[in-house]
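We modelled the chain as a single entity of 45 amino acids. Its sequence is:
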Amino acid sequence: MASGREAAFTRLKPVLDAVASNVYRISDTPGAGARALRRYSGSDA
């Protein structure tokens, strides 16, 4: 899971693909992936 500007994500996608079998872009907002994971796991405070 990653978040960030689309241009940066597009530029870095080959690197992310090299180190992860699945890469998901969540949002432009920094921290959006972490918030989504906390909500999914039930530990959102």
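As a brief sanity check on the tokenised model: The chain has one domain: 2-41. The longest strand covers residues 25-27.
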